[in-house]
Amino acid sequence: MNTDECKIANWHDVGLKDASNGDDRLKLSKYVKACSKANVSPNQSEYNQGYQEGLKIYCTPQNMFDQGLYGGTDYSICPAIEHSNLKPYYDVSYDYYRASEERKKLLNDINRYESLLKNKDLKNDLKESYKQSLSSLELKRSRVMNSFYDAEDRMERFKRAKNLNAW
Predict the structure, then answer these.
(1) Which end of the chain, C or N, has fewer beta carbons within 10 A?
(2) What InterPro entries does this protein map onto (predicted)?
(3) Residue 22 in contact with residue 54, Cβ under 8 Å?
(4) Which pLDDT tens digit goes with each residue over 65-92?
(5) Which residues of 126-156 are buried (b: 16+ CB within 10 A; e: fewer)?
């Protein structure tokens, strides 16, 4: 936040936006520091009130599921009493996200080595190195794919059991 924004900030709305985006409450201390340069002191009471309203938007099972699905922030800013309820929603979708990212990386690496090996001018020692790397990746493929399909299956079963919307 710059000094001009500090002067016109609606601190309720700032708190609401921060919490609904999953930002930690400690962000207020950054505003205090930034706004001190403009001789503006954030209204902590208004900020906290907006932050509490934002938590009601952020700390929902559907949002935790969505956050995990895209590798977003977790439920740690939510009230501690809600953690045990929100954790399964985040965990199942975040497990899928991680497995999906691992699969994507593996397939990209395999494609990259296959493309490199198509180069007719490739020196033999480099060609052998690429073949070894590709072979190593191919050995990992079944484990990574099984992990991905297991995570996808767990997530789909969870969505059906909890009547969740996704994709």
Answers:
(1) C
(2) DUF2799
(3) no
(4) 999 999 999 999 999 999 999 999 999 9
(5) eeeebeebbeebeeeeeebeebbeebeebbe
Tokens read off for 38? 């403009």
Task: Determine the Cα–Cα distance for residues 89 and 61; give it in Å rounded to an integer.
Answer: 6
Check the CA dihedral 131-137-138-140 and report its sign.
positive
Give the C-alpha distances (Å, rounded to integers) separating 81 from 58, 75, 94: 15, 11, 21
Determine which helix (DSSP H) or strand (DSSP E) holds 165, and give its type and residue range: none
Identity at 121, one-letter amino acid code: D
> CA-CA distance, 78 to 58, in Å (whole number)?
8
Q: How far apart are CA 32 and CA 1, in angstroms?
A: 10
Compute the C-alpha angle 90/167/20, nearest 5°.
50
pTM, entire model: 0.87
Q: Using one digit for the tens of pLDDT, what is the confidence trace for 114-153?
A: 999 999 999 999 999 999 999 999 999 999 999 999 999 9
CB 48 within 8 A of CB 18: no
